[in-house]
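Section 3.1: Structural characterization of target chains.
Under the original work plan, the team committed to producing a structural model for every single-chain target entering the pipeline before any wet-lab resources were allocated. The record below documents one such target. The sequence was received from the expression subgroup and is listed exactly as submitted; it comprises 208 residues.
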Amino acid sequence: MSSRDKYLAIGLIVLIFLGIGVFLLSDDSYVSIYVNGTDTLVKSFSINVFNNNSAMNQEIFQFIKVDVNDVNSNVDTIRSNITEIAHSYGYKDVTVKIESQFGENQLPMMTSVVGRSMLPKIHDGEKIIVLKTKDINVGDVVVAKDDEFGLLIKRVGEIKGNNVFLISDNVKETRMENGVLTTFVGVRKWTHLSNIVGIAKIYNVQIN
């Protein structure tokens, strides 16, 4: 082998090792999230052998199991926050995929019912899974943010533009309270579409 061929061979070997080094030190990461309202699964994939994906996955898991049940979170905010977590572990190009039992980019949350206004369909203390969406129709049972009550779980009675009329299934109920016969009237009120958290999809959720 001539000196020229030797130099070419050495140069080729150096390029190969440089390529392998760049490959192994890649700052790309793919994060897959699966949530169903009660459980969370986090998986991540990257070629970089020096980054601590186990610690990153655990941090993402701790974040998402809380944030998914925040009434103000959505797919975009969760994806942005997960991307920031991945950035803190040295990844620059981050792809985040979010899936649930309702499909890709469909975010569920769990909440508990307070009160008897949705009897007989939903009972006081019952846990339900809500699909976060503002794409609602008359007749849907929805969760809505409310300044007076915190969270309302009501049926959509009417929609006018961006205004939604919420009604109770249990319109009026008379029962004994502290020895006094008392009549309770279910909430009926208008709210803005922006206050809608989502649609109730799964009822009587049991937590093991």
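The chain has three helices and 13 strands.
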